[in-house]
Amino acid sequence: MAPCCILLLILAILLSTYPAHFCTATSENDEFIRTSCGATRYPELCYSTLSPYAADVGNSFPQLVTAALRVAQDGAVSTCSAVRSLARAGPRRMKGSELAAGAVSDCVGNMKDSVDQLKDSMAAMKGLDHGPDFAMELGNMQTWVSAALTDEDTCVDGLEGSAMNGKVRDEIRRRVVWVAQLTSNSLALINRL
Prior knowledge:
mainly alpha, Butyryl-CoA Dehydrogenase, subunit A, domain 3, Pectinesterase inhibitor domain-containing protein, disulfide bond
């Protein structure tokens, strides 16, 4: 057989096996994420938001926690912006109630705090190692993510007692509850580190 034919045959064999290997690796990464998300309170949300990071995560639990924190932080940032926009809409969207405007303003403050705490957790995660300070660093992360979750819950609770337009209140509540679920999932994964 001619050398060029042998090279073509080898190339054909390599190309035919590459896609199968690639799909298997992705499937294994997806299964790792699905299994890890099983330990969270909202496993389907966990899987649906973290599976796009399968290639980055691989089978690394610390990378999975980093991705979960990133997703929660991004969600908190976008929710904070949306709530801030509603706050700027003013009393006309909130039936002119000072109580409603105050609840939204408080919610913006809670969401800003939540973003900051999730950022602190992301920074700590990047420097986390199994050295002598591991337990303290992990405890700090757990505290910050728990505080972010508390801020999100406080926002939702503050909306309930206001005389706000039902559609506006429901939209804010929906967004903040979604972020709280992402944050809860992050905390559950951190607790498994």
